[in-house]
Amino acid sequence: MEATSLERTPLYARHVSLGARMVPFAGYEMPVQYAGVIEEHRAVRTDCGAFDVSHMGEIHVDGPAAHAFLQEMLSNDLDKVRDGEAQYTLLTNEQGGIVDDLIVYRLAHGQYLLVVNAYNRSAVYDWLKEREARGTEVRDTSDEYGLVAVQGPRSIERLELPDRPAFTHEMGKLDGIEVMISRTGYTGEAGVELCSAAEDTEALWDALLTRGATPCGLGARDTLRLEVCYPLHGNDITPDTDAISAGLGWACALETEFTGVETLRRIKEQGPERKLVPFVMEEKGIPRQGMPIAGGGEVTSGTHSPMLDRGIGMGYVPAASAAADTELEIDVRGKSRRARVVKKPIYRKEQ
Amino acid sequence: MPAAESYPDDLRYHPEHDWARVDGDEATLGITWFAQDALGELVHYEAPEVGSTLTKGQPCGEVESVKAVSDVVSPLSGEVLEIHQKAVDEPEIVNEDPYGEGWLIRIRVTESAEADSLMDAEAYRAHVAEQ
């Protein structure tokens, strides 16, 4: 690990003092775990966990033409997003591929915030900056902010926040710290993502731990998101994969005009040749990214599910093998292991 | 609960972080505290088959945590006599007790002189300190 070339979030010192195992991720030194992935995972499924996600990028798009510009750049219908609301959407390329998946927040008329994957921060910024229309200003403000996700069924109660619908946001104070409170997340649980000024993020983190949130690393973030089948850009979706094949057609307003929409309409009409499907292992063994699936497929994400206590994953398979209950054979380092396609999500809380 | 760091004096160690407890012409094998700590909580142990032949320094199974997979390297040459089924069914016992309940396989040693080439606990502790 070349620590000198890696960036650090505002919470780096907190992670080290908590004894986190630090790993390089998307150019940052990030905590992969504190006490252990499984324990942290369970804390989020049953109570409340806090994740430093300050490595994610913040890009502001402002100006009288910002709305029209973003409507052309992003796959989902921005007309549906009002002040105080947010939307999951895709930045697409001419081939219908996914430059990044992101959440767009409408802060006010002509003021938008995009929260993008850390790894794609400069790709997104460069993409938008090159196409920036008159009356629009694109700014990368990532270094000004810290971002902490608080996730789990007891999050709202522990933070003493009012109930709000998913994908809404508001400015507020938490223990005296000014934060943007968004009802968003990457775990399938209730919770918020809190964005503060970078200089306030340590105080915010301390307040969250004092309120009983369990510090959670990137390891648990990955197992949590995979159990609920949220795609990870770079694994499950890339600039070479399209939204329809990835099962993200719901985030594409094909009746609007945006980059690559013609390609996506065609794929939708003809039906994709392969599809991204969730699966569960029926035998021992843990699927991992890159493992072949018999019949011309490939695993794009795989892990051990702490809730199901078995291997789970997602991968692309020929469309004929994509229906739920289809049996798959996965090549786990030379050994063929049986898996079964399941419906999304892989894990669902018993109600 | 994960075990505290230790490297018992009665074991022999392979630099790839595996141990052997030699008893006559048989030996019990496992992975060291250092190896389980580096991996994190184990969720899968892929064991070799009973009767298979092991070569010193070659893989003889895999241990896997949520995030990573690692070969188990055989510290000695021999033949697999027994797989520890509890380590297959509940691999977390390797984290909890890597030298006791967390043993992996029992073998018949075929090259008895090989044990002398393994590290003792003191040499292995020095090896770990360099990692």
Question: What would you say this structure looks like, in words?
Answer:
The complex is a heterodimer of chains A (351) and B (131). With 351 residues, chain A is of the alpha+beta class. Among the domains of chain A are: 3-53 and 144-227, 2-Layer Sandwich (Gyrase A, domain 2), CATH 3.30.1360; 273-351, Beta Barrel (Elongation Factor Tu (Ef-tu), domain 3). Helix content of chain A is 20%, strand content 34%. In chain A, the strands form 4 sheets. Chain A has a 6-stranded mixed beta sheet. In chain A, strands 15-16-17-14-19-18 form a 6-stranded antiparallel beta sheet, covered by helices on one side. In chain A, α2 (37-46) crosses α7. Chain A starts with 11 loop residues before the first helix and ends in a 10-residue tail after the last strand. The mean pLDDT of chain A is 97. Chain B is an alpha+beta fold. Chain B has a domain at 60-131: OB fold (Dihydrolipoamide Acetyltransferase, E2P), CATH 2.40.50.100. Helix content of chain B is 20%, strand content 34%. In chain B, strands 1-2-3-9-8-5 form a 6-stranded antiparallel beta sheet. Chain B is globular. The relative contact order of chain B is 0.26. The A-B interface holds A 21, 32-33, 36-38, 219, 222-223, 284-286, 288, 303-304, 306, 309, 311, 333 and B 2, 40-41, 43-44, 46, 62, 64-67, 69, 88.
Topology overview:
The complex is a heterodimer of chains A (351) and B (131).
Chain A: H1 12-17, E1 21-25, E2 28-33, H2 37-46, E3 49-52, E4 57-62, H3 66-73, E5 86-92, E6 98-108, E7 111-116, H4 121-131, E8 137-140, E9 145-151, H5 155-158, E10 169-174, E11 177-182, E12 191-197, H6 201-210, E13 214-216, H7 218-227, H8 261-270, E14 274-281, E15 292-293, E16 297-305, E17 310-318, E18 327-332, E19 335-341
Helix pairs in contact in A: 2-7
Chain B: E1 12-14, E2 18-23, E3 26-31, H1 33-39, E4 42-46, E5 53-54, E6 59-65, E7 69-73, E8 78-83, H2 85-89, H3 92-96, E9 105-109, H4 121-129
Antiparallel strand pairs in B: 1-2, 2-3, 3-9, 4-6, 5-8, 6-7, 8-9
